Structure prediction request, 246 residues.
Amino acid sequence: MKVAVAGGTGLVGGMVVAELRAAGHEPVVLSRSRGVDLRTGAGLAAGVAGCRAVIDVGNVVTVSRKTSVEFFAAASRNLVAAAHRAGVAHLVALSIVGCDRVDFGYYFGKRAQEEVVAGGPVPWTILRATQFFEFPEPLLAKPIALVPRMLSQPVAAADTAAELVRLVEREPVGRAPELGGPERLDMVDVARRLSAAHGRRGLVVPVSPPGRVGAAMRGGALLPRGEHACGSRTFAEHLAAIRAAR
Prediction:
């Protein structure tokens, strides 16, 4: 099956591409480096031509509500329109557990993405996943890492990629069961253990958004609710792999 992967050069996108190939599918990477701009729609028609399915893991790095909503709304509209014209039978989009319960700037964009996908003409599946084990990595590149206090049930990015491929191989289900990791962890602790595994000496400083946003993050609003899918990799295994690779 020929599957277009929006954001196929990112962390999860690259893993999705590898998973698709391993499963015998033909992935097509949609990214600016391949001449496709999700925000403007440039190159999308050619990118999705002949594809039976699309997996959307496109992303923008921002905490701004305006920037996030503008990106995800435009990218999703363009992707859904191009997929519809190309006769795509299934669109699978990656979202975030709890994005509708925490009024954080970036999450408003994910809400906009979900609204466009669910309201569009292409049969769809939305997978909400928790934060990845790799979530704090960009923050740890700085001498002082400001890490949000957040109760999470982090999942391996690789497990998320595998679940996305599993879903795209099946019929559209609308909202799929949420995906989380095998244990609940505080993101500050995750960051400190990651930093130690990498042998870094930078300082991890806990921060908390003010008001209801911070309270919601600390209080479990980003945890899966009810029955949900669970990744197989533990955070301890993730750390062991990092140490082994040093």
Observations:
- The first strand starts at residue 2 and ends at 6.
